[in-house]
From TrEMBL:
<keyword id="KW-0813">Transport</keyword>
<comment type="similarity">
    <text>Belongs to the SNAP family.</text>
</comment>
<dbReference type="GO" id="GO:0019905">
    <property type="term" value="F:syntaxin binding"/>
</dbReference>
<keyword id="KW-0931">ER-Golgi transport</keyword>
<keyword id="KW-0472">Membrane</keyword>
<dbReference type="InterPro" id="IPR011990">
    <property type="entry name" value="TPR-like_helical_dom_sf"/>
</dbReference>
<dbReference type="InterPro" id="IPR000744">
    <property type="entry name" value="NSF_attach"/>
</dbReference>
<dbReference type="GO" id="GO:0031201">
    <property type="term" value="C:SNARE complex"/>
</dbReference>
<dbReference type="GO" id="GO:0005483">
    <property type="term" value="F:soluble NSF attachment protein activity"/>
</dbReference>
<keyword id="KW-0653">Protein transport</keyword>
<dbReference type="GO" id="GO:0016192">
    <property type="term" value="P:vesicle-mediated transport"/>
</dbReference>
<dbReference type="Pfam" id="PF14938">
    <property type="entry name" value="SNAP"/>
</dbReference>
<dbReference type="GO" id="GO:0006886">
    <property type="term" value="P:intracellular protein transport"/>
</dbReference>
<protein>
    <recommendedName>
        <fullName>Gamma-soluble NSF attachment protein</fullName>
    </recommendedName>
</protein>
<dbReference type="GO" id="GO:0005774">
    <property type="term" value="C:vacuolar membrane"/>
</dbReference>
Length: 295
């Protein structure tokens, strides 16, 4: 039993990595094996604090013996234990470090996955940091031409922004998903993303931005000729006419029912705010245009 005592394994490993008058070279290879054994044993007895430290040291050891892949794996284990311990800053740091190590191996997918794992672990405790991790995860994939693999990450980031009531950011994330989908000819995902962005703006009671978003997206032929475009057009027309019942009817359409759950929930709550405000804005815009024509 003493042979597998994780405390003794750690002490032995630490001695092998420290230089002294009798030890001129650190033996990281042997030490790393001991750190790994200690980490497994600590985890088995649910001593998460010591297991986390052991995995951190095992990761450092794998780095020292030029094995970034194994170093990344251990760093992910340390990050998962940091979550169990509620060490939220460490969760972020460890999964970021794991991502960097996977990148050293030239592996963009695991590098992105590591950031996404960190983001999921932080969604409730630190949603702002979670979104940053999701964003970085998307960028890694896009830089490697793997845009399609970023779709779910953009959706996850959008959900967080909606929970935080940061609707402009949420719509921006949907538009970025649309751009990623455009790059890989994922037409259905692209059109759904654009309609989702329009719905988010309408939910935030920003009719002008919803209209602008629709006009901008309509420059893209695949959207202009899509069911999602026709649905958005019906919604915007109903808003212009101040027809709350028509808005509710469109919100229950099959086109909207096929969007992400978080977007469907927003659509089913439309209209928000006072539709009279939109009528006033429309009138003011028309008057401003008339004045410009006169001048």
């Amino acid at each position: 039993m003493a042979k597998n005592d994780p405390d003794k394994l750690m002490i032995k490993a630490d001695k092998l990595t420290k230089l002294s008058f009798t030890r001129w070279n650190a033996d990281w290879k042997t030490a790393t094996v001991l750190y790994e054994q200690a980490a497994i044993n600590y985890r088995a007895i649910r001593d998460n604090e010591k297991a986390k430290t052991a995995f951190e040291k095992a990761s450092k050891g794998q780095e020292m013996i030029s094995s970034p892949w194994d170093a990344a794996k251990h760093m992910e284990s340390a990050g998962a234990l940091a979550k169990e311990l509620g060490r939220w800053a460490e969760v972020s740091d460890h999964f970021r470090k794991a991502s960097e190590l996977y990148n050293e191996c030239g592996r963009s997918q695991p590098a992105s996955d590591a950031l996404a794992k960190g983001a999921r672990a932080l969604e409730d405790a630190d949603p702002e940091e979670a979104v940053r991790l999701y964003t970085e995860a998307c960028l890694i994939l896009e830089e490697d031409g793997k845009d399609q693999m970023a779709f779910d990450l953009y959706r996850a980031g959008t959900s967080i922004y909606i929970k935080l009531e940061k609707y402009v950011d949420a719509a921006t994330f949907m538009l970025r998903l649309g751009l990623a989908a455009d790059k890989c000819n994922a037409v259905n995902s692209q059109c759904k993303a654009y309609l989702s962005a329009i719905i988010i703006y309408l939910y935030a009671h920003d009719f002008n931005q919803a209209q602008k978003c629709y006009n901008d997206c309509s420059q893209i032929a695949v959207f202009l000729n899509s069911d999602q475009s026709r649905c958005a057009s019906k919604l915007l027309s109903a808003y212009e006419e101040g027809d709350a019942e028509e808005i509710k009817l469109v919100a229950k359409s099959s086109t909207i029912s096929n969007l992400d759950h978080v977007i469907i929930k927003l659509a089913r709550k439309l209209p928000t705010g006072d539709l009279k405000d939109i009528a006033i804005e429309e009138t003011n815009d028309e008057e401003a245009l008339d004045e410009n024509d006169l001048t």
